[in-house]
Specification:
Layout lengths: L6 E5 L4 H12 L3 E6 L2 H11 L3 E5 L5 H13 L4 E6 L10 E2 L2 E2 L2 H26 L11 E6 L12 H21 L4 E8 L5 H4 L3 H9 L10 H13 L7 E4 L9
Parallel strand pairs: 1-2, 1-4, 2-3, 4-7, 7-8, 8-9
Antiparallel strand pairs: 5-6
Helix pairs in contact: 1-8, 3-4, 4-5
Amino acid sequence: MKIEGASALVAGGASGLGAATVLALHEAGASVVIADLNTELGESLAGELGDRASFAEADVTDPDAVGAAVEAAADADGGLRISVCCAGVGWVGRVAGKDGPHDVEIYRKVIEVNLIGTFNVLRLACDAMNSNEPDEGDERGVCVNTASIAAFDGQIGQIAYSSSKGGVVGMTLPAARDMASRGIRVATIAPGTFDTPMLGALPQEQRDALAAGIPFPRRLGKPEEYASLVKEIAANPMINGETIRLDGALRMPPR
């Protein structure tokens, strides 16, 4: 998929991995719609980029809001060809502990945002891509979702988060098979510990400890490295139906 001249949607694009992806795709020549709940950050990023960048306030669990963002990307020059979903939330809580069982409403919320929200973006983006004319490689589009190595190495207290990200991994292959006849690819990135706002609130000592557990490179991942892989997935037509770990060979311990 040629990035230059295409239109891209980045859900969760106002900060962290999403913002780095917005910057990388825009620099590569794409028009980018930044979909996020954070209006202040989203509008600021779009304003910073100027031409070929716009912001759409959207909760990934809201079909109407996501539909409007998808429509904006589909109407941009080149049509919607690249969709990336980085939106997500985290929560720490054991199945049962001193304070009783895990709160089922919190579990439901994490699933709703991370898994159902990702599916919502995926289904609506694929529907819009269906209307594209195929390019010279017979492609109509590519969708990149975000899981986590917690899908495979879930730690103590990650029952909700790991469940949601495991679901994202699980839908990758069937989604790719569903859309194969239309020339639309689906892939997932499973990042390890990355230097994002979610980790930014931790004390430096804890951040250093997390970095020390990564075999190589012994540091937190950079959002730009996630964005670089998004670009490679878009450019390489043989990456389809796959979940790629991006973790420096980290395998998470139980705690």
